[in-house]
Design a protein that fits this description.
Distance between the termini: 20 Å
CATH superfamily: Gcn5-related N-acetyltransferase (GNAT)
CATH topology: Aminopeptidase
Number of domains: 1
Number of helices: 2
Radius of gyration: 15 Å
Structural class: alpha+beta
CATH class: Alpha Beta
Shape: globular
Helix content: 10-25%
């Protein structure tokens, strides 16, 4: 565990999270607000799901070995509900932005981010 808030914790990604992320990338209310300019995938084929699974392993599992930029946001029982990421800003190496993505249906309201994370 990396950090714990009132109702959620931040942890490293697990291989067992891959299927949840494949599900989220293919559907969910969260996609309307998370970089909508990137487009929203309407249908996820089996081939696309496998590519998404490979991307998850490369980015979330293998990528964290280089430099941790993201963490899984999970309930106390470990169930993932989204993620937290930090983003650099060109020309400003000593600053960072933080993005909170609540992807699990039913958790996008009610103050899950940031109040329930212990940030607000």
């Amino acid at each position: 565990m990396l950090a714990r808030g009132r109702d959620v914790l931040l942890r490293d990604a697990l291989l067992s999270d891959a299927d949840r992320f494949v599900h989220w990338w293919g559907q969910g209310e969260w996609r309307r607000w998370d970089a909508p300019w990137e487009g929203i995938r309407v249908v996820t084929s089996d081939e696309q799901a496998e590519k998404d699974r490979e991307h998850f392993v490369k980015h979330w599992i293998e990528g964290r070995l280089k430099l941790r930029r993201e963490a899984i946001m999970a309930l106390p029982d470990g169930q993932p509900i989204g993620s937290v990421g930090r983003y650099g800003r060109e020309g400003h190496p000593r600053t960072t932005k933080v993005g909170i993505s609540i992807r699990e249906e039913g958790f996008s309201t009610g103050g899950w981010a940031p109040r329930r994370c212990g940030c607000g």
